Amino acid sequence: MMKGEDSEEVEIDLGDPDDNGEEPQTLWKVPVPLDEEENIHTTSQVEISDTKPLINARDPRGINDCLKVAFEDVIAEPVSVRSGDRVWIWSNALFEVSRIWIYRIVTVLLAIPMSVISGLLFATLSCLHIWMVSPGIKYILIGTCWLQNLWDILLDVIVRPFFTSTGRCCGSFSIHLAKE
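Structure tokens predicted for Caveolin:
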């Protein structure tokens, strides 16, 4: 089945509510996704891959929930002051279209370079952590093993007996509160 074949379309009516039988204007048509398109990347090798693109769940952890902005969240007219119905409908439609298309244009220009830069950055940091930071910490822990043993001995010989005896001395105190 070809993409777009037998797909339903959503139409947005921009006509006046008082139009008499005229064909309503349609600002744009949005094709509804098909079930077959959701399973494009489902071969046996791709299912076990960590790099499989998340087509439907692009923000599964809800990191960008603050960016769910609708026209009503940005522009709202109170009951006392209102523009014409056509102005409101066209403003809503232009807001949505410009928001979507400008986002798409900017992502085309910036998404791939930012992905490459982020990949290089995370790969470099991972390499440094795996090959330098972790072994360095292990070297320090191995080299200071005698210092850890000395610290344990000092705690066992000096600090623990002091706090144990202080706790036993102070443990016999009791406080009674009485109302007069």
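The longest helix spans residues 85-143.
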